[in-house]
């Protein structure tokens, strides 16, 4: 026995639509049953309600109803199969990932920007450290040169060396 595919209890599949029917007509036909979250329309439609109970009432009342001279077929929507899930297929509707995709894109861009800032800050810190070390070495060389050229400094150094020993 094959495993039953889960249904979207808030989302209804609407088939048998006339060519004249667009998203606003579809919305107007289903709004009496409850608050609608989303309406998608091609040659068929998907109506997503905020509440499962509203979707159930709409399905009970609209399945077999006539709209623009055509008899509607209204059922719970089955999720579209997407490769990559368990046993090669994920049981998610194709539109389920849209919002999180944009969020992930923004997070990834923010992460890249932060990494670039960190690299730049690290490079600046390394450059500053190198410059400081180079300045210290220059200062030591100048002090040694001054000590060799100044007889008073040499005398002080000798006294310090004698006192230290």
Automatic annotation (TrEMBL):
The record's listing under Pfam families reads: RRM_1
Which residues belong to any copy of the RRM domain?
Answer: 10-79
Q: Which CDD domains match?
A: RRM_PPIE (cd12347)
Biased composition regions of type Basic and acidic residues, renumbered to the chain: 102-119, 126-140
Q: Which Gene3D superfamilies match?
A: 3.30.70.330
Disordered: region residues = 102-165
**Superkingdom, taxonomy of origin:** Eukaryota
Q: Name one GO molecular function term.
A: RNA binding
Task: Write the record's keywords in alphabetical order, separated by commas.
Answer: RNA-binding
State the PANTHER family in the record.
ATPASE E1, RRM DOMAIN-CONTAINING PROTEIN
According to UniProt, the name of this protein is RRM domain-containing protein
Tell me the organism: Linum tenue
